[in-house]
Amino acid sequence: MSIDVTQAHEISSRIPADFTLGVATSSWQIEGSSQSRGRSIWDDFAETPGKVLDGAAADPACDHLNNIPGDLDLIQGLGANAYRFSLSWPRVMHEGMGKVSLAGLDVYDRIVDGALERGLAPFATLYHWDLPSALQEKGGWLSPDSHRWFADYAHLVGEHFADRVDSIATLNEPWVSAFLGYAAGVHAPGEHDPAASLEVFYRLMVASGHGIQALRSAGVRNPGLVLNLTTIIAEDDDIEPTASIIDGLQNRMFLDLLAGRGFPEDVQEATSAITDWSFVSSEGLAMAAEPISWLGINYYTPTRVASVARDAGKIVGQDASVYPGVSNVSFVPRSPRTAMGWEIHAQSLTTTLVDTAQRLPGIPLYVTENGAAFDDVVSEDGIHDNNRIDYYASHISAALDALEQGVDLRGYFAWSLFDNLEWAEGWTKRFGIIRVEAESQERTL
């Protein structure tokens, strides 16, 4: 049952006047027009049979590049005051380094200028998982040169947009790039190498630090980073030590690096049979701790951890291989759940925000992604999106709870503006505030 007008007004009355309320997208998921850019690792991955559920590829996606003005009008019509989007690295630099595509930069000029004309603050992200294929061929994020490639790209983008874009994030969810891409192998580049996943995690964080420096040197006022953080819940006492390791791999490992605390000791011990961490240097650790102006938190669901022996009959939500060094656990989301099988638990967003503020004090926070996939039903009079409305209402309220508890929370972005290419799920899972038909490109609110 959807919230009523009184509840909606109550939530609205709690939102500060200067609070950022926006929607979010990513380049590979919506842009289309892949022929006008270089290839990315997600193009390669999606074209590998069996990697994407419905066989969907990057064209036409949401055909956003041919609909920029109309799509920005839709955002404005939602009442948002900000738009978070990512740049496609291979659109700006087809080979990832060297020659710059002026046509590629023009795409983002049109997005940024169009957003500003409509009173939407642009929040840009440099990297949302679509590494240029040419760089993957040179070793990708495992290359010791990866931070140099990224810093050059960051400086180029920073110089071009610093006069119009105040807030630019270096990376979106490096956890996903490292552990879904290199441990579980369910995201690009599709590797199954736990040791490599830990090295990629480290090199991504080092690259982010170099990117922060490059953005600042180019005049960007507020460079930041976006992490997918969550609350880890142990279902019983005997699984607490394992849940702590998972918290280390999901949350603390990133936050401790940012805070200059190095790697959590329990994570190092748990992964000692996988890697000796010899790729880590004091210089790299210092760079990973490069100060950020803000931290974005992408939150969707808590992670409930139980022992396999006790919960063998329950649904396992994700494979333990995404957490190197962790075994003999199951992930047991409770009901209600989204179409992704993710537990709906708004209180865990409050907990995640409060915990993050304590672990990384003094850094302004944004909820940079939050949303849900549901099996929407299209009716003659539109889409009755009550489940999604309730989800957003409860989670925006939970974010405001954290703000009222003293968290320096500056804004909230809904994921996503559109139904889109949901990575390995293709078009089978719909997160959009606005429904998009893949074949006709019809948009329906």
Record the SSE blueprint.
Blueprint: H1 5-13, E1 20-24, H2 27-30, H3 41-46, H4 68-77, E2 82-86, H5 89-92, H6 102-117, E3 121-127, H7 133-136, H8 146-161, E4 167-172, H9 174-182, H10 194-217, E5 222-228, E6 232-234, H11 240-258, H12 265-270, H13 282-288, E7 294-298, E8 303-307, H14 308-311, E9 329-331, H15 347-359, E10 365-369, E11 378-379, E12 382-383, H16 386-404, E13 409-415, E14 435-436, E15 443-444
Parallel strand pairs: 1-2, 1-13, 2-3, 3-4, 4-5, 5-7, 6-8, 7-10, 10-13
Antiparallel strand pairs: 8-9, 11-12, 14-15
Tell me the strand order in the biggest sheet: 1-2-3-4-5-7-10-13
In the predicted model, the low-confidence regions spanning at least 5 consecutive residues are 312-317
- Helical percentage: 25-40%
The CATH topology is given as TIM Barrel
Strand content: 5-15%
CATH homologous superfamily, by name? Glycosidases
**First CA to last CA: what distance?**
19 Å
The CATH class is Alpha Beta
CATH structural architecture:
Alpha-Beta Barrel
Number of helices: 16
What is the global morphology?
A: globular
Can you tell me the number of structural domains?
1
DSSP E strands, number: 15
Structural class from helices and strands? alpha/beta
Radius of gyration: 21 Å
Mean pLDDT, as a whole number? 95
Largest sheet: 8 strands, parallel, barrel
